[in-house]
Write a structure and sequence with these properties.
By secondary structure, this protein is mainly beta. It is built from eight helices and 51 strands. The strands form seven sheets. The chain has a 13-stranded parallel beta sheet with strand order 1-2-4-7-10-13-16-19-22-25-28-31-34, covered by helices on one side.
């Protein structure tokens, strides 16, 4: 038995010895372009060494970075089996940054893999090449711990024409460990360019410097992929293995017709900490194809896509978009907006399967957080069967969900829901009443396709709106229910099992049809009016646009019944205003005969006595007042020519920046001339704490001093851009603002942003007090306030 046992053990050992015998190691001992000890010779020896795996190591005498400059293209890596690894991490002294730098002429590539055994490039800095690493056949290619397109420090660009460019290859770019990751930045084209390839891309920095805090753009996409190898998926990131893909000139990731792509756990458009924007030039992710997954339901699978012009631009059928954070920072609580749309979705007119954005089942995992973006939160620009459920969508500048690209207002419902377009223009439900308590009860009406069962999803929003006429979004998912319409397409509903929410919370609802088409969020009946102000004496004609108006609807403005009300259609009403108190902002309420009603808050401003329609600041004053930033000085007066005091400015700036729901923290007695507590103390100290002001000197704020026009430029721009903002240098734009001088940069940037044109005659009048009329212009333009 013992002899038999020993024979059984020796067989695998002998087999192992046979395999090892074919491997060989070749050492690079100098920086010469050819000859013994050179990189060129080591590659040639590996290629002629038979089956691998072969390894090329480095042992070049001397400390620091060693640079190899090939005069012509290096030999292709052509080992038929087992492959070859070129391992720069073996250079003595290696501690995580490349010590071997390969700099080649831009007319040839650095390393080309064409042998069936594949190749691994590790621990090198590769720059100045046509392409740093390339492969044109279906071979395995691994690139790890390299700097592709930068010098060895990772802070200075050494552009390759393309970073890594492959066709059909099976890639491993980076790896599951942070030490495997590459820096792929500064290239003259795409960072990674794949044509019909698959594999994994993990733990890399693509488009930034090695610190992940400064853009070092690839002049193209960070990752660009076209088509794919059949049955070979592409994984970009993964839980704990996400890439930082930021600062690239075009998209962070652009995928064209790749059959199987998963994107998980990446930070796209932010710095390494996820707290500051390093925007990709066009957008975060651009996708066209199928079998596409962005994020997931597991821990660490969601992507952070923030700080870009557009977050995700997705053109696909059957995609899954779950668990992502779009428009927020890494804490998932603070704003780091994409400046335009958060997610834009395009699908086929009749896709075979729905796309899921959020949860695939009611109450299930997978909701995305889509918040604070500078455009619509999520827009379906074309196509159908886009299911949008269970997400947290809030505080976006435009609509939370929109079924029309670029729409400012919701899409009105239509009788029988017969219209077609994105998501079949699915009608949204109307909410008629909400009862708060141990459970929340919501009643309303869905009018849509007759004899059809719909899923309703309920969401809560804060009781306070950032601005008076903000449209509802869906911040917190509450639960779901089903309703079935009757033969007329109507389905009244009352759902009494929703969880408790704070009293006054605003409830919104979406409807999803059996095919998976989700509606916009439910909204008020009146969307907007086309005349926002007029004489207090009444008689102003205005039109209301909205939805679900019934023929006998009534209208009040400021609690006073309007006259001449004419309901032209379910979406249009005209009327005349009745007399109102001068200098007031008045709610407009539409009430239907079936008791459904809706309110436009502060929709109509009755003119101030000192701001007639001919006054130069009229439209700005009425916009400011209708947004509840100020209410005038009393007695029907606005005080248009009065000076704006510094204490007032603290309130105006913070309300314009944060919205009306903002409440400053309690004061602590920061300024000696601002008693704590007092009316303006909290606001003044909050503005100081945000770095917008340091006071007027000597530990004082000078609260009752007028705000000068030069000071105003600093307040506005820091309020708009943040305390760390520094404007570009001045050019001498205004005759009375010397360049350089203390406020010149700020004043000229205010002009460059179109916020001011000066005070006339090529001057800015920097030392003049800022009047309340001028203040209205500045605030409306700086914070993009609309009526």
């Amino acid at each position: 038995m013992n002899r038999t046992h020993r024979a059984f053990v020796l067989v695998p050992v002998l087999a192992s010895l046979v395999r090892v015998a074919s491997a060989a190691t070749f050492s690079v001992t100098n920086t010469s372009d050819s000859g013994a000890g050179s990189l060129r010779q080591a590659i040639a020896d590996a290629n002629s060494g038979g089956p691998g795996p072969h390894t090329i190591t480095f042992d070049i005498p001397g400390s620091g970075v060693h640079t190899i400059v090939p005069a012509t293209g290096l030999p292709f890596l052509s080992v038929a089996s087992g492959g070859v690894t070129i391992d720069g991490t073996t250079q003595p002294g290696y501690a995580g940054s490349p010590l071997i730098q390969v700099t080649c002429g831009a007319i040839f590539s650095g390393f080309t893999v064409d042998g069936a055994g594949g190749g691994t490039i590790k621990g090198l800095a590769i720059g100045g090449c046509l392409t740093a690493v390339t492969a044109d056949t279906a071979v395995p290619v691994t690139v790890q711990a390299c700097h592709i397109g930068t010098d060895a420090t990772g802070t200075v660009a050494a552009p390759n024409g393309e970073g890594i460019e492959v066709a059909a290859a099976i890639l491993t770019i980076g790896g599951p460990s942070a030490s495997d990751g590459n820096l792929i930045s500064g290239n003259g084209g795409h960072g990674i360019n794949m044509n019909a390839g698959g594999g994994t891309i993990q733990n890399n920095k693509i488009g930034t410097d090695v610190t992940g805090t400064v853009a070092l753009p690839n002049v193209g996409n960070g990752i660009n992929t076209v088509l794919g190898v059949s049955n070979v998926p592409l994984l970009i990131g993964g839980p704990g293995a996400g890439n930082l893909i930021s600062g690239n000139t075009m998209y962070g990731i652009q995928v064209n017709q790749h059959p199987d792509v998963t994107i998980q756990g990446n930070s796209i458009g932010t710095d390494a900490s996820g707290t500051a924007a390093i925007a990709n030039g066009i957008g975060g992710i651009d996708f066209g194809g199928a079998n596409f997954v962005v994020g997931g339901t597991g821990a660490g699978e969601g992507n952070l896509v923030s700080g870009n012009p557009i977050g995700l631009d997705l053109d696909a059928d059957g995609m899954v978009v779950q668990g992502n954070f779009v428009g927020v920072d890494a804490s998932h609580t603070l704003a780091l907006p994409n400046t335009g749309i958060g997610i834009r979705v395009t699908s086929s007119p009749t896709p075979a399967s729905p796309s899921v954005i959020g949860s695939s089942t009611p109450g299930g995992p997978g909701g995305n957080l889509i918040a604070f973006n500078g455009g619509q939160g999520l827009v379906v620009s074309s196509g159908t069967r886009n299911t949008i459920r269970g997400n947290s969508i809030h505080d976006n500048f435009a609509l939370g969900i929109s079924l029309l690209n670029g729409a400012v207002n919701p899409t009105a419902n239509d009788a029988g829901d017969a219209d077609t377009g994105p998501n079949d223009m699915q009608n949204f439900p109307l909410v008629s009443s909400v009862t708060y308590g141990a459970n929340t009860t919501v009643s309303g009406l869905l009018s849509s396709t007759p004899n059809t069962t719909f899923d309703l999803d309920f969401y809560s929003n804060a009781a306070c709106s950032n601005f008076p006429r903000d449209y509802l979004e869906g911040e917190t998912y509450l639960g779901s229910s089903q309703v079935t319409t009757d033969g007329s397409g109507n389905a009244p509903f009352t759902v009494s099992t929703l969880p408790s929410v704070a009293s006054g919370s605003k409830i919104s609802v979406t409807a999803t049809d059996p095919s998976g088409n989700t509606s916009e969020f439910s909204q008020r009946l009146p969307f907007f009016i086309n005349v926002h102000s007029g004489p207090a004496s009444g008689g102003t004609g205005l039109d209301i646009s909205g939805t679900n108006f019934l023929p006998d609807a009534s209208v009040t403005i400021g609690g006073v019944s309007a006259t001449g009300v004419s309901v032209h259609s379910s979406t249009s009403i005209s009327l005349l205003t009745s007399p109102l108190a001068a200098g007031t902002a008045n709610d407009l309420v539409v009430t239907n005969t079936d008791a459904t009603a809706g309110t436009l808050v502060k929709a109509f401003v009755a003119d101030f006595l000192d701001v007639p329609s001919s006054q130069q600041f009229y439209s700005f004053v009425t916009t400011l007042v209708s947004n509840a930033i100020t209410a005038g000085i009393g007695g029907g007066l606005y005080g248009v020519n009065d000076d704006t005091l510094r204490q007032q400015m603290a309130v105006f700036i913070l309300k314009g920046k944060h919205g009306l729901c903002y409440t400053p923290p309690d004061c602590a007695g920061v300024f000696s001339d601002v008693p704590c507590p007092s009316t303006f103390a909290n606001w003044i100290e909050a503005m100081a704490n945000e770095g917008i002001t340091g006071g007027c000197g000597g530990g004082q704020f000078c609260p009752q001093a007028p705000v000068r026009r030069d000071q105003m430029a600093v307040f506005l721009l820091k309020g708009e851009h943040g305390s760390s903002y520094a404007p570009p240098g001045c050019a001498g734009l205004f005759a009375d603002v010397p360049c350089p001088s203390t406020f010149a940069n700020w004043i000229e940037q205010l002009s460059n942003e179109g916020i001011t044109g000066g005070c006339g005659g090529g001057n800015y009048c920097p030392s003049n007090p800022n009047t309340r009329g001028q203040m209205a212009v500045f605030l409306v333009k700086t914070f993009n306030l609309t009526q």
